[in-house]
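re: ur question from yesterday

yeah so i grabbed the chain u mentioned. its 212 aa long if i counted rite. heres the sequnce exactly as i have it in my notes:
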Amino acid sequence: MLNKRYFLIYSLLMTAVVVASNFLVQYPVSGMLAGINLADLLTFGAFTYPIAFLVTDLTNRQFGPQVARRVVLVGFIAGVLLSILLATPRIAVASGTAFLVGQLLDISVFNRLRQQSWWKAPLMGSLIGSVLDTIIFFSISFAPVFGFIGPNDDFAIATAPILGVMTAEAPRWISWAIADFGVKMLIGVIMLLPYGALMSVVRPMPTASRTI
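ran it thru and got these structure tokens back, copy pasting raw so excuse formatting
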């Protein structure tokens, strides 16, 4: 009963993160930084989405990879349903695929490193998962090669200075991906603080008790 209660809590947290991220992705970050117009590169969703890795890692620490995958599945279903309602089918496919693959990779990396220094498993899991998440989402969403899933976004594939300030040019979606990944890296490091603070509270359960 206690395990089911925790599973419900983690599932609700994951769903809340996915819902918040799908909502906040509609709102660009306003302001300038080193001559870069942040509104052209980032949305507030980029700051909330990485929290999903924290939820996954805490679940994995307490109950192991099997339960963590179930929590990820709940978030995946919520994300796909929301994306279908709020975005195009192409974005829905990109979002769901990126989330599922990125989170499952995080679980795998975390599990391999969980016996090492306390910070290595959550940090490396979220960072490596974020790499694949970013590549999959922005490639499927905007790369012309995936045009068979849905229409290409002419503005996204048009060339522009990288990050809006460099002399080298690339399709705009490349700059969006770089900026998004940079934020994920930053938030991934920051998430070590709550993870470390919760380690004494969220203790690994005995192997026999992890199945829910």
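noticed a couple things. Strands lie at 32-33, 36-37, 159-161, 169-171. also Residues 208-212 have pLDDT under 50 and may be disordered.
anyway ttyl
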